[in-house]
Design a protein that fits this description.
The complex is a heterodimer.
Chain A lengths: L6 H8 L11 H11 L1 H16 L1 H5 L11 E7 L4 H17 L3 E7 L2 H6 L1 H6 L5 E5 L2 H8 L7 H6 L5 H6 L10 E5 L2 E5 L1 H7 L7 H13 L3 E4 L7 H13 L2 H8 L8 H13 L12 H9 L3 E7 L13 E3 L12 E3 L2 E6 L6 H12 L1 H10 L4 E2 L11 H12 L2 E3 L2 H4 L2 H17 L4 H15 L3
Parallel strand pairs in A: 1-2, 1-3, 6-7, 9-12
Antiparallel strand pairs in A: 3-10, 4-10, 4-11, 5-7, 5-8
Helix pairs in contact in A: 5-18, 13-14, 13-15, 21-22
Chain B lengths: L4 H32 L2 E2 L10 E2 L3 H8 L4 H31 L5 H13 L2 H12 L5 H6 L12 H26 L3 H9 L4 H12 L1 H16 L3 H7 L8 H9 L6 H31 L1
Antiparallel strand pairs in B: 1-2
Helix pairs in contact in B: 1-13, 2-13, 3-7, 3-10, 4-7, 5-7, 5-11, 7-10, 8-9, 10-13, 12-13
Classes of the chains: A alpha/beta, B mainly alpha.
């Protein structure tokens, strides 16, 4: 398998061979006859279905179907930080304004807690509509019957590229997810500080290290770093891995097909070990918000994080970023993590009509514009949405995503959650604690991986 | 004497209801946990998706799960600190307060206050002290110790917070016991010229044997079920591993390694059983006397 050359191609690979149009195994042919093959015909069929059954919905931006939805709609939201919480509320208010019969109740749960309780949540009495991410888990929930088919909603949606549609598609070729935005992971910095000190954007790893050394000399922590919650270090691992070994290796490694104690991953950690002294120390007791504060206060010079860091730094003013520099010229620097966030529909929603109307609304361009206005750190998924309110940061984020040849979701979204949370978090923390222990750490990851990737 | 129908019904109901509760709420879940520990299951879908894997989970826990060993060590450390420091200190406080010192009520309330607070809240309160960049301790001391992040330090930081609560608990229990000691015993001791210290160790302490056992058992239980504090701080990772936290990480979290988590829970159950057996044996022996 060669490296994919576009986001669309990457997303196409998210669909397992059994459901994809390109595989011609004996079994897949059989299955293809049954319905997985619908992946091929689906977009067309859906488009047809959408235009015939919901012409009205397309013209009505609020997405109301023929019968006006009514009653109470429960929305489970993991947008617990201030900025996205307001954005979520703004969406609900706008939907209510267009559909006076519906009461929207947003049930906001702390972001990490929501993610950790998702299995119980979905198997209990989940809210009608809930926030989630594209990636392994979305397809897994769809396959387990914990989410409802949204193909009919997708029939009414316009403005999404094929790439987003594929990222919203489950293993069976149906859509289960409505994307709202995605955001790039990159190295963020404050231009005013850089201008004052005369720093320039590094293009290679050597320049990056030289810059770090200079910052250290200037009494600034070169790279802000926090890993108390366990996931931010995954972003560092992802990006170094994609620079050293390339995008396809990331995909295979996440799928459990490559070994963790082989020379490829070892090299990733060698680079990381060299960079660690440039990172803020004592990272295991710090949250990303605290690290972002140090960037805000200009106590640290750079911060490798998702663009949601803008929520903590002057609302994104005086903030700029660059893609993580190239490490191996043969690999280049054209792969990034750019996770997609969005919404799903519970398996048995109590108010299906209102839920679908809300999801159609959320996928529409008005909802996109509302989000962009409230939360200036993300890039809208719907290409028709009004981007005139985009800040420079958003414009640049959109640019970097469209330029990236390969886009990954994130370590914990691209692989099994049992592996990501019970193995990768403690092991990455063990490495950060004692970088010399790297070979033990990698052996432990590999042997635990083998015990988990069996079913 | 033969029991009437009414009496017999009463007896049956009085036995059956608690029995049903114990079986349904204690035995059934415990047995299910033990059974699940021999399986692999992601917790989603029907019972038919459970896969029998024998002792694989146990082998993995002991040989292929780096957090397990520190977790065992931390649980033991927890027990040692509570038993060796916090419990004696709580008892000492109780003895002092029993002396009817001035403002005793105030101290009593102050010491007991942390027990009323939930451990989650205690975790938050101590976070204000321990935060590396914004915490009180580092600001007052002018240090930059990473109290919660440095895996060499954080277990001690947490133990202090935990002891703070435990002391109050033991103090109250013991104080109640001390109030019940027959004053004539002390009078007799002082008539015989015994000092305060020897009165306590030779007379009061042995008389309080039942309370002592309760205090001991509570200390053991507290150290085995220690969970909330480390969970609030960092989900029981990086130096704060505890068996209970590992169980939760595996079973409750996104991971859903039900079988593997159950194996950890079973190990915890076995350890608890040792203490429960000792306790029951002591209590029963007491009753025979």
């Amino acid at each position: 398998m060669s490296r994919p050359r576009s986001e669309a191609e990457y997303l196409a690979r998210l669909i397992p061979p059994s459901a994809s149009a390109t595989s011609f195994g004996r079994r897949s042919l059989l299955k293809g006859a049954l319905g997985a093959g619908a992946a091929l015909a689906l977009p067309g069929a859906l488009a047809a279905c959408g235009s015939s059954s919901s012409g009205a919905a397309k013209s009505s931006s609020a997405g109301g179907a023929a019968a006006a939805p009514s009653g109470t709609l429960k929305v489970g939201s993991n947008y617990s930080d201030d900025v996205p919480k307001k954005a979520m509320q703004a969406e609900a208010d706008a939907f209510k304004a267009a559909n006076s019969g519906v009461t929207v109740n947003i049930n906001t749960v702390d972001h990490n807690t929501f993610q950790e309780n998702i299995n119980n949540y979905l198997q209990g009495k989940p809210d009608d509509v809930f926030t989630w991410f594209a990636g392994y888990r979305m397809r897994f929930f769809a396959a387990q019957g914990l989410a409802s088919d949204l193909s009919d909603v997708w029939g009414k949606l316009t403005g999404f590229s094929d790439a987003f549609k594929k990222a919203s598609t489950g293993d069976d070729g149906k859509q289960y997810f409505v994307p709202i935005y995605n955001y790039p992971w990159a190295v963020f910095y404050r231009p005013s500080l850089w201008k004052e000190k005369g720093y320039t954007v590094p293009k290679t790893l050597d320049e990056f290290k030289t810059l770090g050394a200079q910052m250290k000399k200037d009494g600034i922590a070169p790279i802000a770093f926090a890993d108390k919650d366990g996931w931010p270090a995954m972003g560092t691992f992802d990006i170094i891995n994609m620079r050293v070994n390339g995008y396809q290796f990331h995909v295979d490694l996440m799928a459990g097909k490559k070994t963790w104690n082989g020379p490829e991953v070892k090299k990733v950690f060698d680079v990381w070990t060299e960079l660690l002294p440039l990172h803020q120390s004592d990272s295991l007791g710090r949250t990303w918000q605290e690290a972002a504060q140090s960037l805000q206060q200009k106590k640290s010079g750079m911060y490798l994080l998702g663009s949601f860091v803008a929520q903590q730094v002057d609302n994104g003013k005086d903030l700029d970023f660059f893609p993580f520099p190239e490490i191996d010229p043969a690999i280049g620097a054209d792969a990034i993590d750019a996770p997609i966030d969005g919404f799903m529909l519970a398996a048995k929603p109590s108010n299906k009509d209102a839920a679908k109307a809300f999801l159609t609304f959320l996928g529409g361009k008005e909802a996109g514009a509302i989000w962009a206005k409230s939360d200036p750190s993300n890039v809208l998924a719907n290409s028709e949405a009004d981007t005139s309110t985009y800040t420079d940061l958003q414009k640049k984020s959109a640019e970097i995503i469209s330029q990236a040849k390969s886009i990954a979701q994130f370590l914990d979204r691209d692989t099994r959650p049992d592996f990501a949370s019970t193995v990768m978090i403690p092991q990455l923390q063990a490495f950060i604690k004692d970088p010399k222990s790297v070979s033990t750490v990698l052996d432990q990851i590999e042997s635990q991986k083998k015990s988990i990737f069996v079913s | 004497m033969r029991l009437g129908l009414r009496d017999r019904i009463t007896v049956v109901v009085m036995v059956a209801v608690p029995l049903a509760l114990v079986v349904g709420l204690v035995w059934l879940p415990s047995i299910c946990t033990v059974l699940l520990s021999f399986t692999r299951w992601n917790g989603i879908g029907g019972l038919d998706t459970i896969e029998w894997v024998g002792t694989t989970n146990y082998v993995n826990v002991f040989t292929n799960y780096p957090p397990f060993q520190p977790a065992m060590e931390h649980n033991v450390l927890w027990l040692v600190v509570l038993f060796g420091l916090a419990t004696p200190f709580g008892m000492f406080m109780a003895v002092l307060l029993d002396k009817e010192v001035k403002g005793g009520r105030f101290y009593q309330t102050a010491m007991y206050l942390p027990v009323v607070l939930s451990l989650a809240l205690i975790g938050f309160i101590w976070q204000l002290f321990y935060s590396r960049d914004q915490g009180l301790l580092n600001n007052v001391l002018g240090t930059s110790v990473d109290w919660y992040g440095d895996s060499k330090v954080n277990i001690w930081a947490v133990l202090i917070a935990s002891s703070w609560r435990h002391v109050g608990y033991i103090m109250l229990l013991y104080l109640a016991g001390l109030k019940g000691v027959d004053p004539s015993l002390r009078e007799a001791a002082s008539m015989d010229g015994a000092s305060e210290v020897s009165t306590f160790f030779r007379i009061v302490f042995p008389v309080l044997r039942p309370i002592n056992i309760i205090v001991l058992v509570i200390t053991v239980i507290e150290s085995l079920r220690a969970f909330d504090l480390v969970w609030v701080i960092n989900k029981g990772r990086n130096g704060l591993e505890l068996i209970s936290a590992l169980v939760t990480q595996n079973v409750v979290g996104e991971a859903s390694r039900i079988g593997f988590g159950s194996a950890l829970a079973t190990i915890m159950l076995v350890i608890s059983l040792v203490f429960i057996t000792i306790y029951l044996a002591t209590v029963m022996r007491e009753e025979e006397q």
